[in-house]
Amino acid sequence: FVQNLVFYGISQNTGAWLANPYIAFFAGALVEVAAYFVVQLVLNRWGRKIPYCTFVFLFGLFAFFVVPIQMLISKDSREQYILMFIINVVLKFLASGSYAIIYIYANELFPTQGRNTGIGMCSMVARFGAIIGTLSNDLLARVWIHFPIVVFGTTSLITVAFATICPETVNKPLPETVHDIDRIGVTWPCWKSKALTLEEINSMTDSNECMSLKAQFKENDIL
Prior knowledge:
Elements: H1 2-12, H2 21-46, H3 49-63, H4 66-72, H5 78-109, H6 115-143, H7 147-163, H8 178-184, H9 198-203, H10 208-219
Helix pairs in contact: 1-5, 1-6, 1-7, 2-5, 3-5, 3-7, 6-7
Protein backbone atom coordinates (compact mmCIF):
# COMPACT_ATOMS: atom_id res chain seq x y z
CA PHE A 1 0.00 0.00 0.00
CA VAL A 2 2.64 2.52 1.08
CA GLN A 3 4.98 1.72 -1.82
CA ASN A 4 2.25 2.40 -4.36
CA LEU A 5 1.18 5.48 -2.42
CA VAL A 6 4.61 7.11 -2.55
CA PHE A 7 5.71 5.76 -5.94
CA TYR A 8 2.71 7.01 -7.88
CA GLY A 9 2.43 10.13 -5.77
CA ILE A 10 6.02 11.10 -6.52
CA SER A 11 5.86 9.97 -10.15
CA GLN A 12 2.85 12.18 -10.81
CA ASN A 13 4.96 15.26 -10.08
CA THR A 14 7.77 14.27 -12.44
CA GLY A 15 6.57 16.70 -15.10
CA ALA A 16 7.18 19.63 -12.74
CA TRP A 17 10.91 18.96 -12.40
CA LEU A 18 11.89 21.12 -15.36
CA ALA A 19 10.31 23.80 -17.51
CA ASN A 20 9.87 21.29 -20.33
CA PRO A 21 7.60 18.47 -19.07
CA TYR A 22 8.77 16.07 -21.79
CA ILE A 23 12.41 16.39 -20.83
CA ALA A 24 11.41 16.14 -17.16
CA PHE A 25 9.50 12.94 -17.82
CA PHE A 26 12.47 11.49 -19.71
CA ALA A 27 14.77 12.42 -16.83
CA GLY A 28 12.41 10.69 -14.41
CA ALA A 29 12.47 7.55 -16.54
CA LEU A 30 16.28 7.54 -16.52
CA VAL A 31 16.31 7.87 -12.74
CA GLU A 32 13.88 4.96 -12.44
CA VAL A 33 15.99 2.73 -14.70
CA ALA A 34 19.11 3.65 -12.71
CA ALA A 35 17.33 2.65 -9.50
CA TYR A 36 16.48 -0.76 -10.95
CA PHE A 37 20.12 -1.34 -11.92
CA VAL A 38 21.28 -0.45 -8.41
CA VAL A 39 18.68 -2.74 -6.86
CA GLN A 40 19.86 -5.59 -9.07
CA LEU A 41 23.42 -5.09 -7.82
CA VAL A 42 22.64 -4.94 -4.10
CA LEU A 43 19.88 -7.55 -3.66
CA ASN A 44 22.05 -10.66 -3.71
CA ARG A 45 24.93 -8.95 -1.95
CA TRP A 46 23.09 -7.37 0.97
CA GLY A 47 19.83 -9.28 0.91
CA ARG A 48 16.31 -7.90 0.70
CA LYS A 49 15.72 -6.45 4.14
CA ILE A 50 18.62 -4.03 4.53
CA PRO A 51 18.30 -2.45 1.05
CA TYR A 52 14.54 -2.12 1.41
CA CYS A 53 14.73 -0.53 4.86
CA THR A 54 17.51 1.77 3.66
CA PHE A 55 15.62 2.94 0.58
CA VAL A 56 12.38 3.56 2.47
CA PHE A 57 14.05 5.25 5.45
CA LEU A 58 16.04 7.60 3.22
CA PHE A 59 12.89 8.39 1.27
CA GLY A 60 11.10 9.40 4.45
CA LEU A 61 14.09 11.46 5.52
CA PHE A 62 14.49 13.33 2.23
CA ALA A 63 10.74 13.88 1.97
CA PHE A 64 10.84 16.10 5.04
CA PHE A 65 13.62 18.21 3.50
CA VAL A 66 11.08 19.56 1.01
CA VAL A 67 9.21 21.61 3.61
CA PRO A 68 12.14 23.74 4.90
CA ILE A 69 13.53 24.18 1.38
CA GLN A 70 10.26 25.60 0.10
CA MET A 71 9.50 27.63 3.22
CA LEU A 72 12.91 29.08 4.09
CA ILE A 73 14.45 29.70 0.68
CA SER A 74 13.15 32.48 -1.55
CA LYS A 75 10.36 31.24 -3.76
CA ASP A 76 11.29 30.60 -7.42
CA SER A 77 14.91 31.44 -6.70
CA ARG A 78 17.73 29.59 -8.45
CA GLU A 79 18.84 27.99 -5.18
CA GLN A 80 15.38 26.63 -4.48
CA TYR A 81 15.02 25.38 -8.05
CA ILE A 82 18.31 23.45 -7.92
CA LEU A 83 17.69 21.99 -4.46
CA MET A 84 14.15 20.90 -5.34
CA PHE A 85 15.38 19.26 -8.53
CA ILE A 86 17.99 17.30 -6.56
CA ILE A 87 15.45 16.30 -3.90
CA ASN A 88 12.93 15.19 -6.54
CA VAL A 89 15.54 13.07 -8.30
CA VAL A 90 16.56 11.43 -5.02
CA LEU A 91 12.93 10.79 -4.03
CA LYS A 92 12.17 9.26 -7.42
CA PHE A 93 15.27 7.07 -7.19
CA LEU A 94 14.44 5.84 -3.69
CA ALA A 95 10.75 5.29 -4.44
CA SER A 96 11.58 3.29 -7.57
CA GLY A 97 14.18 1.19 -5.77
CA SER A 98 11.96 0.29 -2.83
CA TYR A 99 9.06 -0.39 -5.22
CA ALA A 100 11.20 -2.92 -7.10
CA ILE A 101 12.39 -4.63 -3.93
CA ILE A 102 9.04 -5.02 -2.19
CA TYR A 103 7.54 -7.29 -4.84
CA ILE A 104 10.50 -9.67 -4.56
CA TYR A 105 10.67 -9.49 -0.78
CA ALA A 106 6.94 -9.95 -0.23
CA ASN A 107 6.85 -13.00 -2.51
CA GLU A 108 9.58 -14.66 -0.48
CA LEU A 109 7.88 -13.93 2.85
CA PHE A 110 4.62 -15.70 2.00
CA PRO A 111 4.48 -19.50 2.28
CA THR A 112 3.93 -21.48 -0.91
CA GLN A 113 0.49 -22.60 0.26
CA GLY A 114 -0.78 -19.04 0.30
CA ARG A 115 1.71 -17.11 -1.84
CA ASN A 116 -0.64 -16.41 -4.74
CA THR A 117 -3.46 -15.41 -2.43
CA GLY A 118 -1.21 -13.26 -0.26
CA ILE A 119 0.39 -11.41 -3.15
CA GLY A 120 -3.01 -11.01 -4.80
CA MET A 121 -4.45 -9.40 -1.69
CA CYS A 122 -1.39 -7.17 -1.31
CA SER A 123 -1.70 -6.07 -4.93
CA MET A 124 -5.38 -5.30 -4.44
CA VAL A 125 -4.65 -3.14 -1.39
CA ALA A 126 -1.75 -1.54 -3.26
CA ARG A 127 -4.17 -0.32 -5.94
CA PHE A 128 -5.89 1.76 -3.28
CA GLY A 129 -2.51 3.20 -2.36
CA ALA A 130 -1.90 4.16 -5.99
CA ILE A 131 -5.30 5.84 -6.20
CA ILE A 132 -4.80 7.75 -2.96
CA GLY A 133 -1.25 8.70 -3.93
CA THR A 134 -2.33 10.36 -7.16
CA LEU A 135 -5.39 12.04 -5.65
CA SER A 136 -3.51 13.31 -2.60
CA ASN A 137 -1.33 15.59 -4.72
CA ASP A 138 -4.47 17.56 -5.54
CA LEU A 139 -6.84 17.08 -2.62
CA LEU A 140 -4.37 17.27 0.27
CA ALA A 141 -2.49 20.15 -1.33
CA ARG A 142 -5.67 22.21 -1.08
CA VAL A 143 -5.47 21.88 2.71
CA TRP A 144 -1.73 22.57 2.91
CA ILE A 145 0.67 22.71 0.00
CA HIS A 146 3.18 20.47 1.79
CA PHE A 147 0.61 18.00 3.10
CA PRO A 148 1.15 15.31 0.40
CA ILE A 149 4.93 15.08 0.82
CA VAL A 150 4.57 15.02 4.62
CA VAL A 151 2.13 12.12 4.29
CA PHE A 152 4.52 10.28 1.97
CA GLY A 153 7.43 10.77 4.37
CA THR A 154 5.47 9.82 7.48
CA THR A 155 4.00 6.65 6.01
CA SER A 156 7.45 5.63 4.75
CA LEU A 157 9.00 5.92 8.20
CA ILE A 158 6.13 3.92 9.69
CA THR A 159 6.72 1.27 7.03
CA VAL A 160 10.37 0.96 8.04
CA ALA A 161 9.34 0.28 11.64
CA PHE A 162 7.21 -2.66 10.51
CA ALA A 163 9.70 -3.91 7.91
CA THR A 164 12.45 -4.28 10.51
CA ILE A 165 10.63 -7.19 12.17
CA CYS A 166 10.48 -9.22 8.95
CA PRO A 167 13.14 -11.92 8.48
CA GLU A 168 15.81 -11.88 5.80
CA THR A 169 15.02 -14.23 2.90
CA VAL A 170 18.08 -14.18 0.66
CA ASN A 171 19.83 -17.56 0.17
CA LYS A 172 17.23 -19.30 2.29
CA PRO A 173 14.60 -21.87 1.30
CA LEU A 174 11.20 -20.39 0.68
CA PRO A 175 8.65 -21.26 3.37
CA GLU A 176 6.28 -23.96 2.18
CA THR A 177 3.67 -23.90 4.93
CA VAL A 178 2.41 -21.60 7.66
CA HIS A 179 4.32 -23.82 10.09
CA ASP A 180 7.54 -22.88 8.28
CA ILE A 181 6.67 -19.22 8.74
CA ASP A 182 6.17 -19.78 12.47
CA ARG A 183 9.56 -21.47 12.64
CA ILE A 184 11.30 -18.59 10.87
CA GLY A 185 9.65 -16.04 13.16
CA VAL A 186 10.43 -12.33 13.17
CA THR A 187 13.68 -10.46 13.75
CA TRP A 188 14.70 -7.12 15.17
CA PRO A 189 16.25 -4.73 14.24
CA CYS A 190 17.04 -4.15 10.56
CA TRP A 191 19.98 -6.43 9.95
CA LYS A 192 20.45 -9.83 8.39
CA SER A 193 19.04 -12.66 10.42
CA LYS A 194 21.48 -15.43 11.24
CA ALA A 195 21.93 -18.34 8.87
CA LEU A 196 19.75 -21.40 9.33
CA THR A 197 21.23 -24.17 11.45
CA LEU A 198 21.55 -27.76 10.29
CA GLU A 199 18.65 -28.80 12.50
CA GLU A 200 16.44 -26.08 11.04
CA ILE A 201 17.30 -27.14 7.50
CA ASN A 202 16.46 -30.78 8.23
CA SER A 203 13.15 -29.82 9.83
CA MET A 204 12.02 -27.72 6.88
CA THR A 205 9.64 -29.13 4.30
CA ASP A 206 11.49 -31.05 1.58
CA SER A 207 10.95 -28.52 -1.18
CA ASN A 208 13.30 -27.97 -4.10
CA GLU A 209 14.90 -25.06 -2.25
CA CYS A 210 15.46 -27.16 0.86
CA MET A 211 16.91 -30.07 -1.12
CA SER A 212 19.28 -27.68 -2.88
CA LEU A 213 20.39 -26.20 0.42
CA LYS A 214 20.92 -29.65 1.91
CA ALA A 215 23.02 -30.58 -1.13
CA GLN A 216 25.24 -27.58 -0.46
CA PHE A 217 25.71 -28.75 3.12
CA LYS A 218 26.72 -32.21 1.87
CA GLU A 219 29.24 -30.76 -0.56
CA ASN A 220 30.85 -28.93 2.33
CA ASP A 221 30.93 -32.15 4.42
CA ILE A 222 28.55 -30.68 6.96
CA LEU A 223 25.92 -33.42 6.72
